[in-house]
Design goal:
Length: 253
């Protein structure tokens, strides 16, 4: 079994290397603070190491980006987010096993910690967010990245990495009194349960802004059914940052 998975890993990297080699050759890219770090060879190198499970090489790339003062938003969106989307597509096409996807997710979570010392020392804006996984089987990496983006914008974010019942969410809302609630959901068959959770939240917090995200919402084109509960679907980090430009206030009752 181990040898089979090892061969699969080598085949995946070989296919990725082949696709990269077919691209137009360019001179070595210069990483700079303007977000140009996602030139093909930088991203391709990161992806090769990520698919190969080479944590030391991945962390070296991320640390070099930080040292070069690349905007953290670019690292999150053009490196972490993009690579996770691409790996997710490989899994959906059955080109990698689910265990391989889980390995990449775990590596990415570790890589996020490289940026934490820089993100958490920023100026605070006096707002607080609660981000939680809404059901069993929900991948937490997206919710963790959302939490980090809140912190990057000066919010104090409370992250709940394991699935929480609606009773637990209400208790956390009462304790932390956040200015925004974020709920992450992976599987679309949990959407009816999520709507029940939203109703329960609205019974106690009528004005609390709510954002929803996760793989469960990828194929949903119409967000109106969630806007009834005052909730907005966030599909990527850019749309989250647009929501954070609003002024939020919590009103109990």
């Amino acid at each position: 079994m181990f040898m089979q998975e090892q061969c699969t890993c080598i085949n995946i990297i070989s296919l990725y290397n082949l696709s990269v080699s077919n691209m137009k050759c360019e001179s070595a890219p210069k990483i700079n603070p303007d977000g140009e770090m996602v030139i093909s060879s930088v991203y391709a190198s990161y992806m090769r190491h990520l698919l190969g499970g080479d944590y030391s090489d991945c962390i070296k790339i991320v640390k070099e980006l930080v040292a070069s003062q690349v905007d953290f938003r670019d690292i999150y969106t053009k490196l972490f987010q993009r690579s996770l989307y691409e790996v997710g597509e490989l899994w959906e096409k059955n080109e990698i096993p689910v265990a391989h996807e889980h390995m990449v997710t775990a590596l990415t979570e570790l890589l996020l910690t490289v940026l934490h010392p820089h993100i958490f020392r920023g100026q605070r804006c006096g707002k607080k967010a609660l981000v939680a996984c809404a059901a069993e089987g929900t991948h937490r990496i997206g919710a963790k990245m959302v939490t980090d983006i809140f912190e990057l914008h000066g919010w104090d974010a409370v992250f709940v990495p394991t699935p929480v019942s609606i009773e637990g969410i209400l208790l956390l809302l009462d304790k932390h009194c956040p200015d925004m609630l974020g709920l992450s959901l992976t599987h679309n068959f949990h959407l009816p349960l999520l709507e029940l959770d939203l109703k329960s939240v609205r019974n106690s917090y009528s004005q609390l802004p709510i954002i929803l995200g996760g793989r469960a919402f990828i194929d949903i084109k119409d967000d109106d059914r969630y806007r009834v509960y005052g909730a907005h679907v966030i599909r990527d980090i850019d749309s989250l940052e647009k929501r954070l430009s609003f002024k939020f206030a919590v009103k109990k009752g």
